[in-house]
Design brief:
585 residues; alpha/beta; Glucose Oxidase, domain 1; Enzyme I, Chain A, domain 2; TIM Barrel; eight-stranded mixed beta sheet; eight-stranded parallel beta barrel; 24 helices; 17 strands; 14% strand; globular
Length: 585
């Protein structure tokens, strides 16, 4: 047996798998560089046009195939493939490639690569990891065009052996969707990618373990190698020793047992021993995540992020595009509540507009502030939500509210759109809650006033903690200061929950803190009525709620808050969780 190798990457989809490697040879094809004669320029432009049309047709065929073969009947990754199509039709892409062919007399392949490189640089400077990851889409689209120019086969069916660990430099949305539909993928390992890469999104939606960003794993791993993948820890072992393999298989057995229990308890409610119920909902970005949420017992969607609709486009999505997606999500949830967050965008992410550079985007014109500065963009989304509201149980949520004036302005825009649709004879839902994300210290401190005019609160702990403790979570030098159990954070949460209770409105949490079992007793003690998280986190949180009483949880919180430092509080809470549940996870 070959020597054991290990790779550390990002655990992008939880779970453990052992299987034999199937190395996907999808490295970028070598791009020929040719200077054209004058009489070759016009035929070369026609060759480029033909390759673009063929690429667009291939994406259409692939969308239909995936939709037809999908057991759930969802759009699968049709929305991402549609975004790739839009990018193919991007005038900036088409015109610039033709300009290089014509003015610099270079071949189409070379021109496509140069333009793609230029577009990718625009993504490099974006603050948000999710949008930075989209630079990979530029490569996927350019590679498709170049392969078609060179006459290479595309979207071929791959004959995977059962329980294959797919290893690749990166995996396109098309390849990822085609591979998982075979049912033979045990895990993914990629050199590139992050939590929001397409491989990660597909893997989480289909509950396949995945480790991404594993550096040069695909250079070292050979097809047929035995590979153990831990999607929780981001660990990959190649040709593990017998003792390592035994440990992995035991971890895999425990994970599978936990998953089986999760599915068996999916219909049970998260009710404490003394009768306090917490509604457990899911966070999603794509409609194809819904089947997994429902299978794991989610009672609704607590946070639907809508920013994905702005990927890889030169123009903002139309009202009709927004409407179709929201309708699909609402109908898929079959009457369960769906909380749709209005756009949490900054000026560097909106297509068709000149990027608005800011010294500190996290504190700048983003989310509700951006929408109120660009009313028509906001109204397009609000009208689509109102039209979709007749198809299910919708809740509308405004992000980054810092004061009453913003809430009033946002609600005024919603009423304006409602009146507009009414005059046009377009039906809308009779009543739907309109709430806010509480994620700024100012909102936390005036929660009593905001609760008089919001129908519900949902706390976004990621930003609330970041702003409260004055740290940038992406900055490694200060990331250690990000402490969810900091006394200031706990007191803010107490104030928000108290204000909601006094006003008689529901209070939820949709940030990362909600899905971490370590904090479940703290949140139960604080009195949260809803927690929203990923599908894989639901069972662990539910188990803890069902095995304790709220009185016990409140006693634990009172003792925890007698400490003064975040480290002391965290150490105490973790010790108590270990003692009571054998570890929170």
């Amino acid at each position: 047996m070959s020597a054991t190798q290990s790779f550390k990457g990002i655990g992008a989809s939880p779970g453990v798998a052992v299987g034999h490697a199937y190395v996907l040879d999808n490295r970028r094809v070598r791009t020929p560089k040719v200077k054209l004669q004058e009489n070759e320029i016009e035929p070369e432009a026609l060759r480029f046009k033909t390759a673009v049309e063929l690429s667009s047709s291939q994406l259409d065929d692939l969308k239909e195939k995936l939709k037809r073969d999908s057991e759930e009947g969802s759009q699968d990754h049709g929305l991402i493939l549609e975004a790739h199509k839009l990018m193919l039709q991007d005038p900036m892409f088409i015109v610039e490639v033709n300009r290089l062919i014509s003015e610099e007399a270079i071949n189409a392949e070379w021109a496509v690569r140069r333009v793609a490189r230029r577009i990718k640089h625009q993504f490099d400077n974006m603050e948000d990891e999710y949008f930075r990851e989209r630079r990979a889409d530029v490569d996927f689209v350019a590679d498709r065009v170049v392969r078609n120019l060179l006459g290479h086969a595309m979207d071929e069916e791959v004959e995977l052996p059962k329980d294959s660990v797919v290893v690749a430099h990166d995996v396109s949305p098309a390849d990822a969707a085609m591979l998982v539909r075979t049912g033979k993928v045990a895990a993914f390992v990629t050199d590139l990618g992050g939590q929001t890469s397409h491989t990660a999104i597909v893997a989480r939606a289909r509950e396949v373990p995945a480790v991404v960003g594993a550096n040069r794993a695909s250079d070292s791993i050979r097809s047929g190698d035995l590979v153990a993948v831990d999607g929780n820890q981001g660990l990959v072992l190649v040709n593990p020793t017998d003792s390592q393999l035994a440990l992995f298989r035991e971890t895999m057995r425990r994970h599978q047992a936990s998953e089986a229990t999760a599915l068996q308890t999916a219909e049970l409610r998260a009710v404490s021993l003394d009768g306090h119920q917490i509604h457990l909902n899911g966070n999603i970005e794509f409609p194809e995540e819904i089947p997994s949420l429902l299978a794991h017992g989610a009672e609704g969607i607590g946070l639907y992020r809508t920013e994905f609709m702005f990927l890889n486009r030169t123009e903002a999505p139309t009202e009709e595009e927004h409407y179709k997606v929201y309708r699909e999500v609402l109908e898929s949830m079959g009457g369960k509540p769906v909380t749709i967050r209005t756009l949490d965008l900054g000026g560097d992410k909106v297509p068709g507009k000149k990027p608005e550079r800011e010294a500190n985007p996290a504190l700048g014109l983003r989310a509700i502030r951006y929408c109120l500065h660009h009313r028509e963009l906001f109204r397009v989304q609000l009208r689509a939500m109102l039209r979709a509201s007749v198809h299910g149980n919708i809740r509308i949520m405004f992000p980054l509210i810092s004061g009453l004036s913003e809430l009033r302005e946002a609600r005024s825009e919603l009423e304006h759109c409602k009146s507009e649709l009414g005059r046009a004879g377009v039906p809308v839902g009779k009543r739907f809650p309109v709430g806010i994300m509480v994620e700024t210290p100012s909102a936390a401190w005036i929660a009593d006033r905001l609760a008089q005019e919001a129908d519900f609160f949902s706390i976004g702990t990621n930003d609330l903690i970041q702003y409260s403790l004055a740290i940038d979570r992406q900055n490694r030098d200060v990331a250690y200061l990000y402490r969810p159990l900091h006394l200031a954070v706990l007191r803010s949460l107490q104030n928000i929950v108290r204000a909601a209770k006094n006003a008689g409105i529901p209070v939820a949490m949709c940030g990362e803190m909600a899905g971490d079992p370590t904090y479940t007793l703290v949140l139960l003690a604080l009195g949260f009525e809803e927690l929203s998280m990923t599908a894989g986190q639901l069972a662990a949180v539910k188990r803890i709620v069902r095995q304790t009483s709220r009185n016990e949880a409140q006693s634990l919180l009172e003792r925890a808050m007698e400490f003064s430092t975040a480290e002391e509080i965290e150490r105490f809470v973790r010790h108590e969780m270990e003692k009571r549940f054998g570890g929170a996870e």
